[in-house]
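Hi V.,

Quick status before I head out on leave. The structure for the redesign project is tokenized and pasted below; the design run finished overnight.
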């Protein structure tokens, strides 16, 4: 079995259903042909995500060269590969403590009015159009606006960051290399600016941790963390908004329940994350010792790939797992990971998804798809994201004040 056959399948849902028909742990091939173990069932995935015998640190194995495989130049690769998600405790504990201290519930709460303002601005621009691509009108720009606000990146730099991020996801190794250098250089410069003139943003707080806390947060870690937050903050929320809107538009009875009381969207987002979550797979793990899992023996250092999407559809965990049910009370989905590597920005992602989708369907009560559901095309790759989402906004109502 090849991982690419799943991630690039014309019908991913069918591919995930096929994984659930087989054993929970099996041999497979990574994107570059490397032998890996594929873990597809909910309980076995939770084990991999929580068992300290599994490491996230790719330096503890030698079978894959992820940096060169995806086009990262050697001189900037560490900024992209030595991220919060690829550290093990105690290094991970130290880094996450710094981030959590700055990226806390108060900061997310304070961002909510700005998320609503950004959403209203973008939807107002869409209101007069007969047809629009919802991804370009809302799902793509909103998360970038929010993450720039969070990091303290000037609004005038958003287009530069958008272009570089597009280069990183282009699939062209030359463009990826150039974009990686641009992004690393940008955040090197932004860190220096925050050092000279700090603000109340998250990056200023992290920079202060580097300068005032005996340098326990290195300059490389500062830049790497900024890049992690940029990618995580933009890509995951982009997919949540796009996939969530698509799911609701193709399930009118579910959308009707949310529209009856827009505050229900905070509940519905959990189910949209489960079925339309942006991350179909996790960061590779590597056993530090021999591990028995799902009836298989995995040797130290062998790459282990968990598949969040199949775990989120495991019938042993979720009733009618392939059905969208926004009333579902089971919120144990894996879309933000689990354990010590649970997504540090989960609260922000939820807030953006909730506010964006609630505002969208409130302001456009007649919103419809401009294509048939069968014509919707998902981008091939490691995250679940639509290529386009053409909609007809219909009549619009005035934006409501933030509550």
């Amino acid at each position: 079995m090849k991982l690419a056959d799943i991630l690039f399948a014309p019908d991913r849902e069918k591919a995930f259903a096929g994984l659930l028909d087989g054993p929970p742990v099996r041999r497979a091939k990574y994107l570059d042909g490397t032998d890996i173990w594929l873990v597809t069932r909910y309980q076995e995935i939770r084990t991999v995500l929580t068992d300290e015998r599994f490491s996230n640190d790719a330096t503890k194995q030698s079978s894959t060269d992820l940096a060169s495989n995806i086009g990262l130049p050697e001189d900037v690769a560490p900024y992209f590969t030595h991220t919060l998600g690829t550290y093990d405790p105690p290094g991970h504990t130290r880094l996450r403590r710094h981030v959590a201290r700055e990226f806390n519930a108060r900061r997310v709460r304070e961002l909510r009015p700005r998320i609503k303002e950004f959403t209203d601005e973008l939807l107002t621009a869409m209101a007069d159009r007969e047809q629009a691509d919802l991804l370009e009108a809302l799902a793509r720009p909103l998360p970038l606006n929010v993450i720039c606000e969070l990091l303290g990146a000037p609004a005038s730099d958003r287009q530069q960051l958008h272009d570089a991020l597009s280069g990183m996801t282009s699939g062209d190794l030359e463009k990826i290399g150039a974009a990686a250098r641009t992004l690393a250089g940008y955040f090197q410069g932004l860190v220096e600016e925050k050092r000279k003139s700090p603000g109340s943003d998250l990056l200023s707080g992290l920079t202060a941790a580097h300068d005032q806390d005996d340098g326990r947060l290195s300059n490389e870690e500062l830049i790497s963390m900024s890049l992690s937050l940029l990618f995580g903050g933009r890509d995951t929320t982009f997919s949540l908004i796009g996939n969530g809107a698509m799911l609701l538009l193709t399930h009118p009875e579910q959308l009707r329940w949310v529209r009856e009381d827009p505050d229900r969207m905070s509940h519905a987002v959990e189910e949209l994350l489960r079925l339309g979550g942006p991350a179909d797979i996790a960061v590779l793990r590597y056993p530090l010792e021999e591990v028995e899992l799902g009836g298989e023996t995995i040797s130290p250092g062998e790459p282990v790939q968990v598949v969040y999407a199949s775990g989120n559809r495991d019938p042993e965990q979720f009733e009618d797992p392939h059905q969208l049910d926004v009333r579902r009370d089971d919120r144990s989905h894996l879309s933000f990971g689990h354990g010590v590597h649970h997504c540090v920005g989960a609260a922000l992602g939820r807030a953006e998804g909730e506010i964006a989708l609630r505002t969208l369907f409130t302001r456009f009560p007649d919103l419809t798809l401009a294509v048939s559901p069968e014509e919707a095309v998902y981008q091939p790759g490691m995250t679940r994201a639509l290529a386009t989402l053409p909609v007809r906004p219909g009549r619009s109502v005035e934006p409501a004040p933030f509550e």
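Above is the designed sequence. The beta strands are 25-29, 35-39, 54-55, 132-133, 286-287, 291-293, 296-298, 304-306, 368-369, 390-392.

G. will cover questions while I'm gone.

Best,
W.
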